Protein 1
Amino acid sequence: MTVIAGVDVGGANTKISIINSDYKTQSVSFYFPFWKRKLTDYPKIFLSYLKKLSPINRIGFFTITMTAELCDIFKTKREGVLKIIELFSSILPVDKLFFYTVDGNYVNVSKAVQNPVKLAASNWVATGAFFSELLPDSLIIDMGSTTTDLIIVKDRVVYSKGSTDLKRLLNGELYYTGLLRTPLCALTNRLSFNNKEYSLAAELFAITADVHLILGNINQNQYTCDTPDNGEKTIEASYRRLSRMLCSDVEELSKQDLFKIAKVFERIQFNTVKRGVNKLLNTHLQLQNKPVILTGIGRKWLYKMFKASRLNLSFKLSDELIKKDVSDLTPAYAIAYLFNKKLRDIVE
């Protein structure tokens, strides 16, 4: 029985999914901010989490996708990809190691280093390719801790006007807004509440995790990233951080006021995604009556918000199609699943 590991190496979080030939899975995720930690710390931490899922010698193949190459510890994305290839080549059997490309292919280490840019930000392609196996036409919304991907599948083919992050930002297929790590000052520089409009501090005082914790969209255990002030991950602490966005504090602003402010930020963030969805569906009219799949750690919040907005679209949680723990880290599962399918097709 072949066991395959899928690894999605993000700048903040690494996700690992183990799948066997019967498609039984185990998954885990861990926080490793590449821009803060030493690269030399990564191998030991990665292996400790991998071993929680399976002994390494029982894993037949290791498949890797990444977005961590964008971290500013690397001078270029090319350098970032090459460093990540080097990291995994130093800790895993090279003959069993394959990297996923934006073309939807798997390449070995020698080919990966020849064209490293092809590996940059490839995880959304895997997500689209996986769901294309289940539904021929769909719009997929994958919200993670940091970004939201809007992925188009038409006739079981992943469609995009451009494969790089730069082009996807231009074409409205990638939004730098996530459930946890987005600075609130990146959402807007002005905010209205109690019939008054306020300018906001352009400081890293609070992040979307604070808003979602206050509103009950996440719990303390789901606040998995660092806090802006290195403080506690409690609702009280989130209120304090949020108050600073208006250059204030919890003595000047009441919890009732701050709850209202959190709701305003929530609406602003949701509207960013909603506008993106409307833009793509107005371009791809044939998808307007097709399923909109919500996946990633932000899927349940998005589902709630979309349902409340009463858009005439068919929203479907990925939990209806795949396991809950897999829905939290879809790209990692997808690259393992797709590789496993390739092996089965070869055998058959």
Protein 2
Amino acid sequence: MKNQKKKSNIETMFPLLRVDRNLIVSKQGDLTACFELDMPEIFSLSKEQYQELHAL
């Protein structure tokens, strides 16, 4: 019983309709683009690499 109550609360907090082609579609019609960003660890870069990364 307790688990179903938590499930219904999550569904009301995140009213998602579906995920399609890296887009999240909400029940209100909002679209959210999804992507993944891989960044190197901060202390694994040389000084030149670090400056080049932040120059973009």
Protein 3
Amino acid sequence: MNRYRNPQRSAPKKINQPSASHPKTQTLLYHGLRRQGLCNLKVRDVQGRSGVLHFRVFGKRGRIRYVPVDPFALRLIDEYLEMSGHRHERDGALFRPVQNNRGGETERALNPASLYRNVICYYGRLTGLDEVVSGLCVHSTRATAATNALEHGADIAKVQEWLGHENVSTTRLYDRRCSRPEESSSFKVSY
């Protein structure tokens, strides 16, 4: 069954070429961060805790949470830091703009609006996701991460903690498993 909105449309294309945007998209998809949380990350916010690397993420209302770093995303971040040359600038932004049309300065943190415009929208158009997913935005990567974790057996209370939600009912809103027509109760009825 084709799960995409347009039945004539096939699955989105995969991108195989490396890019400075890949570590950003992978960090969003593997860690369920808000766009502001990603843009606020500093190089020093990649920290070891109990032998595992974590992101120190500043969330809403000044709350800090520690999110374990996925090995695949970490490899991309390492390559990105090597390519960009700011690995040892501990107080500097982890993710920076590739170019700055206003002042030319690229040492500052990535702007959340440009993350949406230059990364999410760009890859959405490139892969065809913008045509098959209504409401494609940075925050939808957060819901995708939550749904993916739940599909692979994560406990909803752990996902709640991972996303930094105060209430589990908020986390349930992110769970898109129940919104798939092929999993509707209509298909479970048998007489």
Protein 4
Amino acid sequence: MTFHLFRAGKAKNYHYRFQIAGARVQRSTRESSKAKANVVAQRAYDEALTLTNGGKVVPTLAAMAQEWLEVNGPISSAAHQRSVETTARLHFYDLGDLPLNQITTSHVELARNLHLADHKPASANHWLRVLKLIANWAVKRELIRSIPWQVRMLKVQKRPRSILPIAAVAEWFAAVDQVTRADPSVATAIRLMFGLGLRESEAAGARWEWLDWQRATYTPGITKGREAEPVPVPAWLVEQLAPHRQVEGLIAGKRGGAQQHPPGFARKAMKSANLSCKIKGITPHRLRGTFATMLSEQGVPIQTIQAVMRHKSPMTTMAYLEKNRDTAAQAQNDIAEKIGFGRGEKVASSTTQTRMDTNVDDYHQSSVDGKSGLDSGSNEPAPGE
């Protein structure tokens, strides 16, 4: 309904009330006949709508989502496009047929409650982000002045996120190689994610011509944020790629490099490797988080990690980093030694932390060499990739 018609107290005349672009309007129709009052209220609403919208017709939420997909779909990531399309197709509830300027805070809160009946709070927050994306697109197109609702994100309980333990890297990649024997390009792509911190789509689209062999750097030519920052290529990955070196083309394309892998291509192999190694939660995204965390643990400044991760904000980079309690425990021991407390009991390291203080170059090199056990005559733990 575009407006609300009512009588105030014992007054004979009808009043109307409506809200457009966050502005509330209430006036008297000066009519005692409801039919005539309806005409007056509708005319007032239409005039206010025209004034607010510069004479343009305000589209419905569903129509605006479709326009966003038509305009932005070809230039957005496949995952982003799929997210908007799925939300618009399945989760607009009663909002889809409403003009954008008529969607109120109450409308959005009630629709979110419907979403929460079958989805978790984190999903409801993502749903709200999609709604804001479409509404902001309408603002940008000057179809509405501002988002007409104000709904806060829900507080979500944070959960510990997985990273690939150093001690399990070699075994995990051996399992990946085992399950991808029919298509080794998948294993190559997963190594690109681990060694360069690439997103799954970036690994699928990685090209030989973007690899500088002389400087041992790789500059992604197609990225989520359109950045072109060179990333150092570790020696183990150079050796891994060298036998397959080409002048141009996909590094990890299927069918001999002729075709790019579709979204989600690496998840099956990773899931199998997780089951084989009794590890939970390693996905392409968490492999990227592993890359960032390992750099941080080796003392790489956050600004440098931000650059190689191609993040616009250091806060985004910080969200990728997991805490290593063993590193904190070692730092506490070092401090105790410096202040003269080192002769007593050392601070106990975390028994639940699966990562080990192993040199990054060592575990990277071991994966290339295919070693997963102890070297003869060495008491060091088995290195991983």
